[in-house]
Structures are given as structure tokens and as C-alpha cells.
Write a structure and sequence with these properties.
By secondary structure, this protein is mainly α. It is built from 19 helices and two strands.
């Protein structure tokens, strides 16, 4: 909403920040729309627990760590908790819809901030068509199973994007409610799976505490007959990949009821809950196999049935059937979560005039970034159409799942991991230069430094196994270059703005949200007809 005030809009951070809640030339999002639970639904669903488990555990076990797959998730949990220490401290100081973009702008300068902002836009933008490809693959299989109807995957993917565009047009509370239902459903079936497996310990399930040994996360396994050797790097990368989405919490700062408290809490809770859940569920999954050879064979040759065989045998076919439906709702909900975040990054860049100002507008009634959201839907649809034109539309497995889902997820994940590494450095610099009184040896120095080293290590793992991660598809050879190109383009754009429009440059990453007082918010909503 546009708040009518004569304030200068200078923020309280003392570092050139501009408080958007005190500006009359900036459209605001729906202030105080969601609480802690709402932010958790919006971020946890982005991590898509059932998709993360069913897609990634077979790869971690079959091509990475074997029986030590749970250890890979445990180690990833610890590292991301360390990252969250500094990230939460930064979120407590800078409340902005720009997330990475705003944090890096404050800590490392506007040039790197804009480069990261563009990278984040591209990353979250391609995650939506990635999930649309996964959705199309599973929906096609379900339609064939139920009705013997083979629908070309691009139509299914575009249909999902269209449905998401309609739902994200409305108030963020609607998105939070839909994502909440999807999240609760997928967590419930996975908890049933976990309890069912561990309940059969010694009677069809082979539970070993040794699978949790952190040392195992850094170990692969030798080749067994025709089975290829496992690489610890592959296991760790896919474990980290499972968390992409939790870092979106700061992007909802302006729409949360108490951003200084809610956002840091949401970060810690997201990482902790996902970490425990992923570790336990992956432990249950590998416990369904009596020996390492059977486990690795299933992971390499039949990943689609990795969970299903165990659930049908130990719990019942009904649980497998439910999982096969929840994969669809999870893919859709996850795509919606990434759509919301991409739209908010685009909106953030639009209201700071880095992108066209029209992208910084919010809906007069719903207070959603509807113009940015519409652009994101077009971009996602364009990716789907491009793949359909250049790689075809008759192979859901190789095209929709292998290329659209796999390659777009890889492209975006590299950008997100790079942004997280830069954010870790930005946190250290920001607190030492702008808030030395709040500098803490662990929260704002050692923890971010360890997180930086860990993120760089994961990126190195990615580069070392690009042939495997890219699935052998030719486009994979260009992914790293595309990511570098996006970052460089953002950097060059920042320097160009700095040289030609210093006023615009000064605002890059500096629009933060200090909060609209309840009385002012009520008056503004009444004036605009939002309240009687």
C-alpha cells in the first residue's frame, strides 16, 4: 500500500538504508499478513520434503554414500545450521523483500548486491519450470495408469504454471494456506513411512545406528559387479540440494507480523525441522534393504521404486498410492513457493528502479506483487516452450524429468549456493563496519566464515561431478557459463547505473522495512477501502 507520510524515509540502520514504510512513492506488500506459521509454510514447502526424499535419497544412497546416506543429511544439517546463525543475525538487522540482494548490498556494496539480485531472480525463476517439468512427468504417468491417456508433457507443465499464476495473484495468505495443506499432507505420509519402517525393526527392516556416523558422509563405496562406485561428493551435493528453499524466509519480512523476530525464528526452525526429518526419513528408507548391494542396486537401477517397494511391503499398498499422488501436490506447491520468491525479487528490483518501475507495483486490493508475478509466469512458460521446441515433447522421462527438472534445478542451485557463500562474507563485513557494537565472535565471524568454506566446498563438489549431475545432456556443458554470465551481467549493469544515474544507484538494496505502526496501517487500509 502507499502510506501517506512526509517522512524522509531514512532507515534506522545508520548505513544509508531507506525505510519503505515511511515512503509515499513506494507500493508496499500486505503488511502483517502472516505470522510465524505462515512464513514456515511459505518456506518449508519450497524445500518440498516428499520430493526431496523420493527424488534425492535414491541418488545419495545409490551413487553417493550407500548405507551412510543418512550421515550425508546429518552433516548437511549441521553445516546449514551454522550458516543460519549469521543469516538470522543479518535478518534481524535488515528486513527487506530482497533477501540475498539486500543483504549483500548492505555488506559488500551495491555492485555485488545487484549482481546477486539478478542471479537470485534467475535462480528462483528457473526453479518454477523445473518443478513444472517434474510435475508433468509424474502427472503423465498417473494419467496413463488411471485412464491410459498419454498427454504431451508441455501441456501439463504449462497447465500447472497457469494454475499457479492464478493462485499467486491473490493475497499471500491464500498461498500460505494452500502450501500449508500440501506441506502437512506430505509430512504426514512420510511420518507414517518412518514409523512403519522403524516399527518393523528386526522384522523386515534392518535398522543400524552406524548409518548416522558423520564420517560416512565423506565416504563413497567401491564398484560392485556391474554397479558403479559411489562418490561422497555426489551424496553430499544432493543432500544440500534438498534444502534449497529454506533460505527464502527473509523475502517475506515485509509481510510478516514481526519480521525482526519471525524471520530469524523461521530460519532456525526450518533448518532444524528439515534436518531432523530428512535424516530420519533417509535412515528409514535405507533400513528397508537387508544389505548394501540391494540398496545400491535399487538406487542405481530403480530409483522410482526406492521408497515404494519398502512402503508397500512394510506398510501397505495404500501408502504407496498416497505417495504417488502427493508427489504431484508437492511439485505444484513447491513451484508456487519458488514463484512467490521470484516475484518478490523482481518486485524488489522494480521498486528500486533497477528494473522497470511497473514491476514494483502491488495490487490495490490483495497487496501482492502482481505485475512481477505475471512476468514470472511468462518467464516460466517461456522455458517450458523453449524445451518443447528444441528437445521435443514426446518423452516425459528424458525431456520433462531429465532435462527440464534436472538441468533447470542444477542451474538454479549453483546460483543459490554461490549467493549463500557471498552472503556469509557480507555478514562478516556488515557487522564489523555498520554494527561493531553487535559484532559477536561466533554469530557474525566464525559461523559465517565456516559457512562460506562449506558452501565453496559444495560448489567444488558440483563442478567436480558436473558430468553426472548434468545427466550427460549437452545443455549441462553450458550451465556454469550461463550462471557466470548472469552474475557478470548484473555487475556490469550496476556499474552502468552508477555512472549514469547515481541517485538510482544509491537506492540499490537499500529499501528496507522498519514496519508500519498499527495505527498508521489501519488508517491507510481504511482510506483505501481495505477495512470498513
Amino acid at each position: 500500500m502507499t502510506v501517506n507520510t512526509q517522512s524522509t524515509g531514512i532507515g534506522a540502520e545508520g548505513d544509508g538504508a531507506l525505510d519503505v514504510s515511511q515512503r509515499k512513492d513506494v507500493d508496499l506488500l500486505h503488511s502483517k499478513a502472516v505470522g510465524l506459521i505462515g512464513v514456515l509454510f511459505l518456506t518449508l514447502t519450497g524445500a518440498a520434503p516428499i520430493s526431496a526424499m523420493l527424488f534425492n535419497v535414491p541418488i545419495v544412497a545409490g551413487n553417493g554414500n550407500g548405507l551412510f546416506a543418512p550421515a550425508a543429511f546429518l552433516v548437511a544439517t549441521i553445516i546449514l545450521l551454522v550458516f543460519s546463525v549469521g543469516y538470522a543475525a543479518m535478518a534481524g538487522k535488515v528486513s527487506a523483500v530482497g533477501g540475498f540482494y539486500s543483504f549483500i548490498s548492505h555488506g559488500l556494496g551495491r555492485e555485488l548486491g545487484m549482481a546477486t539480485g539478478l542471479s537470485a531472480v534467475v535462480a528462483y525463476s528457473v526453479f518454477e519450470p523445473s518443478l513444472a517439468g517434474g510435475f508433468a512427468y509424474f502427472m503423465n504417468a498417473k494419467l496413463i495408469q488411471l485412464f491410459n491417456v498419454n498427454v504431451p508433457w508441455p501441456y501439463l507443465a504449462l497447465g500447472m504454471i497457469a494454475a499457479g499464476a492464478v493462485l499467486t495473484y491473490f493475497d499471500v495468505q491464500i498461498s500460505a494456506a494452500i502450501l500449508g495443506v500440501a506441506l502437512v499432507a506430505e509430512v504426514a505420509i512420510l511420518l507414517i513411512f518412518d514409523v512403519g519402517v522403524f516399527g518393523h525393526a528386526g522384522h523386515g527392516a534392518y535398522v543400524s545406528v552406524a548409518a548416522l556416523n558423520p564420517v560416512g558422509a565423506f565416504q563413497g563405496f567401491p564398484a560392485i559387479g556391474k554397479l558403479t562406485a559411489g562418490a561422497a561428493g555426489i551424496g553430499l551435493f544432493f543432500a544440500f540440494w534438498s534444502w534449497v528453499g529454506f533460505e527464502m524466509a527473509p523475502n517475506y519480512a515485509e509481510e510478516s507480523r514481526d519480521p525482526k523476530r519471525i524471520v530469524p525464528l523461521a530460519l532456525y526452525i526450518s533448518v532444524t525441522l528439515l534436518g531432523i526429518f530428512y535424516t530420519v526419513t533417509s535412515w528409514a528408507a535405507i533400513s528397508g534393504f537387508s544389505n548394501a548391494t540391494d540398496l545400491i542396486t535399487e538406487g542405481q537401477n530403480n530409483p522410482a521404486t526406492f521408497f515404494f517397494d519398502t512402503s508397500s511391503r512394510l506398510i501397505g499398498p495404500w501408502s504407496t498410492s498416497i505417495m504417488s499422488y502427493l508427489i504431484l501436490t508437492s511439485s505444484f506447491a513447491c513451484a508456487m513457493a519458488f514463484h512467490n520468491t521470484a516475484a518478490r525479487y523482481i518486485y524488489s528490483l522494480g521498486r528500486e528502479r533497477v528494473l522497470p518501475a511497473i514491476l514494483g507495483k502491488t495490487h490495490s486490493r490483495y497487496k501482492t506483487p502482481y505485475v512481477a508475478s505475471f512476468l514470472q509466469s511468462i518467464a516460466a512458460a517461456a522455458v517450458i516452450i523453449a524445451f518443447a521446441v528444441f528437445v521435443g515433447s514426446n518423452d516425459p522421462t528424458g525431456q520433462a524429468y531429465g532435462q527440464v527438472y534436472g538441468l533447470m534445478a542444477l542451474l538454479g542451485t549453483i546460483l543459490i549456493l554461490s549467493a549463500q557463500a557471498l552472503v556469509s562474507v557480507a555478514i562478516i563485513v556488515y557487522f564489523r563496519t555498520h554494527h561493531p557494537e553487535d559484532h559477536h565472535w561466533w554469530k557474525t565471524l566464525v559461523a559465517p566464515l565456516l559457512a562460506f568454506v562449506a558452501q565453496v566446498y559444495v560448489l567444488w563438489l558440483c563442478a567436480s561431478h558436473m558430468d553426472f549431475l548434468g545427466g550427460g545432456f549437452p545443455f549441462a556443458n553450458y550451465i556454469a557459463w550461463i550462471d557466470v554470465g548472469v552474475f557478470v551481467l548484473g555487475l556490469v549493469g550496476a556499474f552502468a547505473i552508477k555512472a549514469t544515474n547515481p541517485t538510482k544507484f544509491d537506492q540499490i538494496g537499500r529499501l528496507i522495512y522498519q514496519g508500519v505502526p498499527d495505527g498508521m496501517l489501519a488508517d491507510a487500509e481504511h482510506a483505501q477501502g481495505l477495512k470498513p
